[in-house]
Design a protein that fits this description.
Layout lengths: L1 H16 L5 H5 L4 E6 L2 E7 L5 E4 L1
Antiparallel strand pairs: 1-2, 2-3
């Protein structure tokens, strides 16, 4: 039982350190955006089933 509690605590600490970005804030009402990383364009698309797809 102690092992499970330690694992849960580690997960919680990792989550606290990660920066969270709301996808709605990125999309701003659109269904697709273009992200640029190291000069390469990627498309982030919200499907009709409310799933996210990232393509190069």
């Amino acid at each position: 039982m102690q092992m499970v509690q330690e694992k849960d605590q580690d997960s919680l600490e990792l989550t606290d350190k990660l920066r969270r970005v709301d996808v709605d804030a990125l999309l701003r009402g659109s269904r697709e955006i273009c992200l640029v990383y190291n000069g390469t364009e990627y498309r982030l698309r919200l499907t009709s089933n409310d799933r996210l797809i990232l393509t190069k």
